[in-house]
TrEMBL record:
Transmembrane segments: none annotated. PANTHER family: TC1-LIKE TRANSPOSASE DDE DOMAIN-CONTAINING PROTEIN, TRANSPOSABLE ELEMENT-RELATED. It comes from the Eukaryota. This is Transposable element tc1. Residues 228-280 form the Tc1-like transposase DDE domain. GO terms for molecular function: nucleic acid binding. InterPro entries: RNaseH_sf (IPR036397), Tc1-like_DDE_dom (IPR038717), Transposase_5 (IPR052338).
Amino acid sequence: MTMAPLMKAYKFALPPMLAQCATAGFLFSAGDIIAQQAVEGKGKDYQKMLRGVEGKELKQEATKQVREQVVKIAMQNWRKPFKNIGKEVEPQLSAETVHEVLAEKGYHCHVAWKVPLLSGLARKKCLNWAMDYWSMTFEQWGDIAWSDEVYIMLGESPGQIFVTCHTGEAFDNECCIPCFKQSSVRCMVWSLIIRGMKGPLVILEYLRGKGGGMTAEWYQEQVLEGALDGAPSHCAKTTTEWFNKHHIPLFLHPPSSPDLSPIEPVWHIFKSKLHDCKRQPTMYNELCAAIFEVWDDIDYDDIDKFIDHMPEVVQAMIDAKGGHTQY
């Protein structure tokens, strides 16, 4: 323990509980000292005392037993914040130390992905789907037409936006993104992709007006052939009969499945390009014009790379036993 001399130098000023811990032979951070002394009501005194040791290598080294307890608590509830985990062990640990303990075991904290809720039956169907198409060749994947529709609305952000600023500037106008009420100017578009090709972009018109719901009847009237996912309008009996009548074989996804179709990441690229347009549309006609322009700008390489990943997608689904994957 190379930091023992440093701890000894400040041992006289440590909170009683941490003084006992220092005597027991393990170390802790300045943050842990401040956290403990806050419980004892001497926050300002210790913060002033520790101001001179900030930046020095003052680490908290929990015992093996405490480390095992941290991992056990985390595994019981993966959503529990590090600071709460630190409060459940004795002696208490800071969130930073909990992070370090879990990182040593290969555990890391990240924003949870939002995914469809999969029941046991849905997972089974996803696994069966993957097993059915596991043997498909690279060429066969390239012969499938993948179709889907997507909502587009004015002011829609493609994802999180990060800003770089000094401390205290987070709420400056330049560092904030204004929020508006959801725009009524929106539309749903449909298209399909094949390796080396992309279909026309169709702006779907609704009996209920722009942005309304999609029924099986309207889907059949406005959408052409392609691969379908498990959406209700795609699986309707009349829709299936329409495809059979026109001798178009279907490549269906299981219901409630994750977004396995390679057109899904293409839509993300499409929305990002639309968001990056120098002149943002403000009216419905302008939005439609921008949509066609951006779709024409989608590169075939962006399409092919996702189709070429389908064997990996299927294998990942098998490895996950029908559960969620990185795709």
